[in-house]
TrEMBL record:
Residues 105-175 form the PDZ domain. It comes from the Bacteria. This is S41 family peptidase. Belongs to the peptidase S41A family. One of its GO terms (molecular function) is serine-type peptidase activity. PANTHER family: CARBOXY-TERMINAL PROCESSING PROTEASE CTPA (PTHR32060:SF30), TAIL-SPECIFIC PROTEASE (PTHR32060). It holds the Pfam family PDZ_6. GO terms for cellular component: outer membrane-bounded periplasmic space. Keywords: Hydrolase, Membrane, Protease, Serine protease, Transmembrane, Transmembrane helix. The chain crosses the membrane at residues 12-34. CDD domains: cpPDZ_CPP-like (cd06782), Peptidase_S41_CPP (cd07560). The keyword Hydrolase applies. The keyword DNA repair does not apply.
């Protein structure tokens, strides 16, 4: 996938704790809100108690008449309709409650599944130069097989210069059907020249977990987000690290915006033998409780690295391990997103995401707009030799536990 580097903002704003629910459009009344004839039939006293849909319809017709008569440019009526729905939901003032167009909903589903058809890279666009750079190349992808490297700067797609184009347009050009190829030309600084590669589009799983063994029996495992493939990748990583003799685990959740609730619950469960992992409560005091079972995947000491961009699902994992004294939290205070969203497909390809409940750590703490304070506070500093001072501190804390 030609993945745009807006992972944190998108992760937080697309329902970090989304649990996919199915509800008909009629249930939510989205289509009734602005359907004039149906709204006109509402009892007068009901209209008086809330929105006057007749008045809304009248004003919309007046606005449309003015646009048709005076607006200089062509009108995209589909965009206008979507704008009405988006504006209605945006008026709630909750950045996590969102109306998705058909295209946006498809993109959301792809993003949260962790699987897609593409060349298998994550890219970022520099706002000052407009240049698009490869950030990551996913394992098992066509990009990896073709020899594309992190740091390569995209120059052409199928012989078309894309250096002045928006990243979204470039993504659209790179995407295509599984089994087809796309020609990418990149500038590679290490070789000081341009490289042309034919890259196959194939089914790819996003790499949401990275790992390696460090010195002194410390295993390093980074989770970049919680997608549908994350738990299986986490299990693979943990198994590999244990086979290499891991004694203690350094779990890096810095800049992880969150993701799927089911994935983070399974991962947290692997560190606990019993007890509540997380609980939720809606406006009526109803909710759900997720608990650990007896099976334990790793019983050694753990340090968890967090920062101000560690949000939601990341905070569930860090919060549970902290509450049970299962890990030392190192870094800076987390983002503070302690609310849950459900996604409701509306039957026509569009969808609505709604904030439905608060969530609580095992100790019953709500961290919304507060975050989780680390056990060991360490601000990130820029070391001349490139040393990651937060990582070094987390290793130090872990070594104390191992000694």
């Amino acid at each position: 996938m030609e993945r745009r580097d807006n992972r944190f903002a998108k992760g937080v704003l697309t329902g970090i704790l989304c649990s996919l629910a199915v509800a008909a459009a009629a249930t939510w009344g989205i289509y009734f809100l602005l359907t004039a004839r149906q709204k006109a039939a509402l009892p007068q006293e009901e209209q008086a108690a809330g929105l006057d849909y007749g008045e809304i319809e009248e004003k919309l017709e007046k606005l449309k008449t003015m646009v048709d008569a005076s607006y200089l440019y062509d009108v995209d009526e589909e965009s206008m309709r979507d704008g009405i729905y988006k504006g209605f939901i945006a008026s709630l003032g909750d950045p996590y409650t969102v109306y998705y167009t058909e295209e946006e909903y498809k993109e959301l589903q792809e993003s949260s599944s962790g699987e897609y058809v593409g060349v298998g890279v994550q890219i970022s666009q520099d706002p000052s130069t407009n240049l698009i750079t490869v950030i990551r190349v996913f394992r098992g992808s066509g990009a990896e097989e073709a020899g594309l490297l992190a740091g390569d700067v995209l120059y052409k797609v199928d012989d078309e210069d894309i250096t002045t184009e928006d990243i979204n347009n470039v993504v659209a050009k790179i995407r295509g059907d599984e089994g087809t190829t796309v020609k990418l030309e990149v500038y590679r600084e290490s070789s000081g020249g341009f490289v042309a590669l034919d890259v196959e589009r194939r089914s790819v799983s996003m790499d949401t977990v990275e790992w390696k063994m460090l010195e002194n029996g410390i295993g390093y495992l980074q989770i970049t987000e919680f997608d549908g493939v994350t738990y299986s990748q986490f299990t693979e990583a943990l198994t590999d690290l244990k086979s290499q003799g891991m004694k203690g685990l350094l779990l890096d959740l810095r800049d992880n915006p969150g993701g799927r609730l089911d994935q983070v619950v399974e991962i947290t469960d692997d560190f606990l033998t019993e007890g509540v992992i997380v609980s939720t409560k809606d406006k009526n005091g109803q909710g759900s409780t997720y608990e650990a079972d007896e099976e334990l995947a790793f019983d050694g000491p753990v340090s968890v690295l967090v920062n101000g961009n560690s949000a939601s699902a990341s905070e569930i994992l860090a919060g549970a391990l902290k509450d049970y004294g299962r890990a030392k939290i190192v870094g800076t205070t987390t983002f503070g997103k302690g609310i849950v969203q459900n996604i409701y497909p509306l039957g026509d390809g569009t969808a609505m995401k709604v904030t439905v409940s608060d969530y609580y750590t095992p100790n019953g703490t709500s961290i919304h707009k507060i975050g989780i304070d680390p056990d060991v506070a360490v601000e990130k500093s820029e070391e001349e030799d490139g040393t990651d001072n937060q990582l070094e501190k987390a290793k130090e804390v872990l070594l104390e536990e191992l000694s």
